[in-house]
Amino acid sequence: MATLSRLLSVSVRCRVIDLNLAGKVVRKLSLSQQDKIATSL
User: Fold this and answer.
1) Cα 14 to chain center, whole Å?
2) In this structure, how many other beta carbons lie within 10 angstroms of the beta carbon of residue 41?
3) For the segment 22-39, what is each residue's pLDDT rounded down to a tens digit?
4) 3-state SS string for the chain
5) How would you label 6-39 residue by residue, b for 16+ Cβ within 10 Å and e otherwise?
6) Whole-model pTM?
7) Alpha carbon of 16 to those of 5, 35, 36, 38: distances in Å?
8) Closest by Cα among 5, 9, 6 to 17
9) What distance in Å separates the CA atoms of residue 5 and residue 11, rounded to the nearest whole number?
């Protein structure tokens, strides 16, 4: 059981890191799109 809970906690941590990375990428993409819109205007 201890190994199972350990694996679960590790997978949850990886998921949280993935979510943080995805959020950063989305923010960068939205920022670059805003820059493009601003320059086109």
Assistant:
1) 11
2) 5
3) 999 999 999 888 888 788
4) CHHHHHHHHHHHHHHHHHHHHHHHHHHHHHHHHHHHHHHHC
5) eeeeeeeeeeeeeeeeeeeeeeeeeeeeeeeeee
6) 0.56
7) 16, 29, 30, 33
8) 9
9) 10
